Amino acid sequence: MVTFTRFLYCYDEVKVNLLIELLWRKDFYKVIFWATEIFCSGFREELWKQIWRMYYEFYALTNSASFIKIKNCQKKYNAMKDKNKAFVMVLKVLNEMFHSEPTPDLFIAHSMYKNPTMNVMYKLLCKKIKNHYDTMNIKALSRNLYICVKKYPDKVVGCIEDIKIRNEENGKIKKEKVNINDYYDNMYLKLLAFLCSSAKLKKKEKKKTPKLKSRYSKYMLELVYFQMDESPDKVLKKWRKFEISDYTAAFKLERSTVDLNKCFRYNWLYFASNSPFWREKIEEYNGTINKLEKTIEFPNDDLHEDFYDAYNYDIDEIDLETQQKSTKQLIDLNTSDLLVDVFDGKELSLPKLNKKIENIKIKY
Fold first, then answer.
1. CB-CB contact of 138 with 356 (8 Å)
2. Distance, CA of 68 to CA of 215 (rounded, Å)
3. Is the dihedral of CA 308, 274, 219, 238 positive or negative?
């Protein structure tokens, strides 16, 4: 279902644009804008989940963005009571990713191969995974690992640790332990990254991440501490700094199921009520959701007027350019189109990775 964020972008499209801008590594202001839009719309835990997914899919293979740094930043974030102040930890992580070189191998293996669940014996699965790991047949490896995670969630870690055995200099044999990372719950993706980021791969030299520039921190603070203390009808004109990327259409989007312009112009508050930012404000005035009419109803005219005096964006009076920063028509693309344009000419890190992926759209 379509969900509008604080500044009435589609939530799923904001998430996609955060990924797109990190991969392009051209404008860190856009990275900050999309991340704060997720965070300030109330999707704080979801933002951290997306950060970890992006790490495992694009940075874990070569650890170009530091796993330890990301984990430590989330630990500090969790310990801070004031989450607005804690957002600086998110910013440090995004800065780390922005100045790291992504590789699409694990994204392809995780998101662009179909992995059906089948009834396969545990021992046979482990044997298959080991064989595919030894030959670096990534497509078959990801398929059988996916099945093992789904069918044998309590045993799969042991299976993977049995595969990653190495001989030490003193002649002893040692298992390589899986770092479970309790901050992220996608066991399949975590184990896939663990297996693929092996010593067989040539590690790229990690460049030192530049310190955060003060102008970025200042821009972040402006967005995080935004208050609707001016005329609400002026908010979108002032604060909608960026339009969604044309590459947004490379992913499965909720807009494909609705008339987005109609949702935006006539039912914006109903679709905004799906976000914590707007739901809290509606509840403050005792508003209730009418799903049948796609409207928000208030107990009386006074509460209705008070709400709209405080928060009405007055969509009808917004200029077309400002509206289209979220509602513009998109050229139809597939996810592979984005990968080709971002990573054109760059060799994949994993050997024998099947480059013949389907022209599909994935949900992010």
1. no
2. 26
3. negative
